[in-house]
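Task: sequence design from structure.
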């Protein structure tokens, strides 16, 4: 296949992956209408996606098995818990309190958190332009939230904090797992990490929940399967393939479609409205993240 065709295909995969990932928040909000809590819903998402990840883990072996040490598997378990269990847990909890469109805007700040975490723990310097971009990004978040805080108060603030915790844990996962992915390969590492996450959610459910997982309306299970396949499994591999071809920086540009896609989907399926102020805030956030994500 010609290079131009490969690039075009990668762009299509990237756009599709971003849109499918963005649909997750909408599916979660739809499921909450059937009175299911965050942890049981998260467990359904993980259980329905687990067979695919187990299959991929069996089929796709690590890229450089000779370089993998026992402690690398321990790190993988840790990052699987941080990046896919905790991040998802905070996200699902936050969506109880805030709109799907706001959730995606807050989650979208994770590249700025990657920069800050790398600066604090890995001593990686950041440029004045990147500092400026970070300030712009969080100014956009403040603008976006201003209307919601006026109308909804503390619940929206709590939801925003929980979603920010989700972005923070996911950014920590990205920073910490960067040196492991070349050893395992992106597909294998993702499969292993998702398996760990699923087991962590199962333990959480067993220890802290007393809900019968089989008493919900059938619509909940349909939404759980849809979330697992269309908004978890398929986009995770589409994005990996797109990044491999386009590079992380080019993909980050396409990733800016995420908040826009969620706003449109939430408007169509949840009848969520967005004010002019929130549109301005969203644009400001996208500009800030775009500047942060650009290479020199």
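Answer:
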């Amino acid at each position: 296949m010609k290079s131009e065709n490969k690039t075009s295909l990668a762009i299509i995969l990237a756009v599709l992956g971003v849109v499918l990932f963005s649909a997750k928040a909408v599916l979660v909000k739809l499921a909450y209408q059937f009175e299911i809590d965050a942890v049981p819903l998260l467990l359904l998402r993980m259980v329905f996606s687990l067979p695919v990840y187990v299959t991929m883990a069996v089929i796709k072996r690590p890229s450089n098995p000779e370089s993998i040490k026992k402690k690398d598997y321990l790190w993988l378990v840790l990052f699987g818990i941080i990046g896919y269990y905790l991040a998802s847990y905070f996200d699902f909890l936050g969506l109880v309190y805030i709109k799907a469109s706001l959730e995606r805007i807050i989650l979208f700040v994770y590249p700025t958190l990657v920069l800050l975490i790398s600066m604090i723990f890995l001593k990686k310097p950041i440029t004045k332009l990147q500092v400026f971009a970070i300030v712009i990004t969080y100014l956009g978040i403040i603008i976006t939230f201003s209307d919601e805080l006026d109308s909804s108060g503390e619940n929206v603030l709590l939801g925003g904090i929980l979603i920010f915790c989700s972005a923070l844990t996911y950014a920590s996962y990205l920073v910490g797992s960067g040196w492991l992915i070349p050893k395992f390969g992106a597909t294998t590492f993702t499969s292993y990490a998702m398996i760990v996450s699923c087991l962590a959610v199962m333990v959480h459910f067993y220890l802290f929940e007393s809900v019968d997982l089989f008493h919900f309306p059938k619509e909940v299970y349909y939404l759980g399967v849809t979330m697992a396949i269309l908004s978890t499994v398929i986009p995770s591999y589409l994005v990996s393939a797109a990044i491999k071809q386009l590079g992380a920086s080019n993909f980050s540009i396409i990733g800016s479609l995420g908040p826009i896609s969620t706003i449109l989907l939430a408007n169509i399926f949840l009848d969520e409205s967005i004010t002019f102020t929130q549109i301005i805030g969203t644009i400001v956030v996208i500009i800030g993240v775009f500047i942060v994500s650009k290479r020199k």
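Residues 3-293 form one domain.
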